[in-house]
Design goal:
- This protein is α/β, with parallel strands linked by helices.
- It has 2 domains: 99 residues, Enolase-like, domain 1 (2-Layer Sandwich); 236 residues, Enolase-like C-terminal domain (TIM Barrel, Alpha-Beta Barrel).
- The protein is 38% helix and 19% strand.
- It is built from 13 helices and 11 strands.
- The strands form 2 sheets. An 8-stranded mixed barrel has the order 4-5-6-7-8-9-10-11, surrounded by 6 helices. Strands 1-2-3 form a 3-stranded antiparallel sheet, covered by helices on one side.
């Protein structure tokens, strides 16, 4: 497929920051586009971003490289990675090209389970909640919506705040970690809980993971330690990994080499895939391939600062993700992604 022109717009992400939206003009007057999110709690191994004031300059350079030539996804991404463009710019170009060229076979779509964001804290909300995300494991959009509304009504009934955090989860100032877990237990005694600890929000040492697992129906723990504590990761996975998913996010950063190391050290049994951590679709697919070869479960995730673009949903279905994180049933940029799942046939 030939690219005739690449243009970029500065658009706003959900946190008010600017982020790139790229439009590809292809042969036969066809067009494709993609915008990319940003992470509020970004790991140090993520791709470096281009600042908004440099978007146009980098797109001018990209035009000189790409215009008038035939590209596949692999050759395009290889060319983009060979230069010093920011990961947000390369991914926007890469995802726009992928979006146009990929066609999902509807008959074979397998929908992932949802990590519905119930409560959020840390850098995303109320800092009394040092755990960043408290999610419910859901099998359907219908049930996820019902549970979200049920939780909102409960919080209203007990006069707790029903304001939401960065990703649409409730973030009442009156709750701490234990009260949040107990609130979930009261309302959803049969539900499994997925926690994103985000390395316990700047080093909170009060969390005893085996104790939490013994007291609450935990399905998964994401980023329980920082991204250099390999021995702690391996020990926790050895101790509880038969019953709980230990999920790497900042630890692995959608990087095939770090995922491979994590597999070799038996440091986890599941991995988050966020394409903007690595900068191209091809590298994201390589990360998925490495994870699958290591028998890891795949969790595709949105980011803290999101746009209304929904290509990440198509990507999750295309790779057969086991789980997907799209936030709470609030905030337009999150609802857009749930609506995309609905449009594709999820009940």
């Amino acid at each position: 497929m030939k690219i005739n022109r690449v243009t970029v717009n500065k658009i706003y992400a959900s946190g008010g920051s600017e982020t790139p939206e790229v439009i590809l003009e292809l042969e036969n007057n066809l067009k494709s586009f993609a915008s990319v999110p940003a992470g509020i709690s970004a790991g140090k191994y993520e791709a470096i971003k281009t600042a908004p004031e440099n978007y146009s300059r980098q797109i001018t350079d990209i035009n000189q490289l790409l215009i008038g030539k035939d590209w596949t996804q692999e050759t395009l991404d290889k060319e983009l990675k060979a230069h010093t463009f920011g990961g947000n710019i390369t991914l926007a170009v890469s995802a726009a090209f992928w979006r146009f060229s990929f066609r999902m076979p509807q008959a074979s779509v397998r929908f992932p389970q949802l990590f519905l964001l119930a409560f959020e804290g840390g850098k995303h909300g109320n800092s009394n909640l040092t755990i960043q995300e408290f999610c419910l494991l859901e099998d359907s959009l219908t049930q996820a919506r019902s549970d979200y509304l049920k939780l909102r009504q409960y919080l209203s009934d007990v006069t707790a705040e029903i304001t939401v955090g960065a990703e649409g989860g409730f973030s009442p100032l009156s709750l701490d970690n234990i009260k949040a877990l107990e609130t979930i237990g009261i309302n959803f005694p049969q539900k499994k809980i997925a926690l994103d600890v985000a390395d316990t929000f700047a080093g909170d040492q009060s969390l005893d993971y085996p104790q939490l697992i013994s007291h609450y129906p935990l399905f998964s723990l994401e980023d329980p330690y920082n991204d250099e504590d390999w021995e702690k990761w391996s020990k926790l996975t050895a101790d509880v990994g038969n019953n709980v998913l230990i999920i790497g996010d900042d630890l692995t950063s959608t990087n095939p080499e770090r995922i491979k190391k994590a597999i070799e050290l038996r440091a986890l049994n599941a991995v988050v895939i966020k394409p903007n951590q690595i900068g191209t679709i091809t590298d994201s697919l390589a990360a998925v391939k490495t994870a699958r070869e290591g028998n890891l479960k795949i969790v595709v995730s949105h980011r803290g600062e999101e746009t209304n673009d929904t290509w990440i949903v198509d990507f999750a279905l295309a790779i057969g993700a086991d789980y997907v994180k799209l936030g709470g049933f609030a905030r337009g940029e999150r609802i857009a992604k749930y609506n995309r799942l609905k449009e594709l046939g999820m009940n």
